[in-house]
């Protein structure tokens, strides 16, 4: 049986370069890898030095709701991706045997009148669309002839390219539609940079809280978020004077903060950090203006993600720790959802684009790996690789990706603040 789109939800979330505006935190408050900026326009960007994920205290109903919202967004994105494969194959009248969300034992499943099995499975690492084979051991009495023209492997290369790439195309189109919906619902964002670094939140009983820093304060003498994080990390136990601006006070004042020492020996003060700028919303005058505004945002996000992907591979030893699994992504989405409903649109767009980029990588078990095999076949003049070789390549990739996904789930779960507090 052929499987398309074994796409793990594990990626360096949003692949954003250091030159981009970002949010970060100087621990021990979670060093949010992506996190929302103050409403109304959160940005989902990578932190240079994440240690923990956003806290998810189970007792808070609003947190449970935000987790459910983020999970629903992630599930919808997976469904969109798999539906791209499914729709392309259906339009080309190619046989389909399974449509699955997740992997492992099925939690729920049913079969359609056409014999396609739809299932929701135990491990939320992605999903797949499966195509039958004449010699499929799962269906020994299927009655499918080896030369059946409706089998995917018997279709010409252009048809197979369309089916394999359709999931990525679906995510790209959906990302644009999400940004278009955001523009129609909330307007397009116009950002005006302001001096300093904003503190959206302060962790109770942290070094920053003890020093008197409050949410909404602005650190005026910080060169940048990255620069401030580096200063705090390199100064455990040392007093750092910070010039603070507070809306309720007429003049700036100095606060001396002594960073606590984190488990890795670096400093932490327990705040979220964000670029400081004013965001205004511009309502599009008509549908054509909304299309244009959405296009500008779409191409800006896409360029930033691609630039971040390049930096990830060029500096893999420094960026490997920023790989995020489904737990980390949902935790981040929950934090965004709590900040503003507007943030979920941006979160969905970024995850869609990330999923598209990740799936295009020429790695076994990903769509890009299958496309690479098709390119090899095209280069060989249409002569296919031996089926055993293809199966070995893809099976090894599936095993590696599943192991990586499980490792990420365990690691990201243990990095959740409320889990750490229980341990």
TrEMBL record:
Its cofactor is Zn(2+). Keywords: Hydrolase, Membrane, Metalloprotease, Protease, Transmembrane, Transmembrane helix, Zinc. One of its GO terms (cellular component) is membrane. It is a multi-pass membrane protein. One of its GO terms (biological process) is proteolysis. It comes from Dendrobium nobile (Orchid). This is Peptidase M50 domain-containing protein. It holds the Pfam family Peptidase_M50.
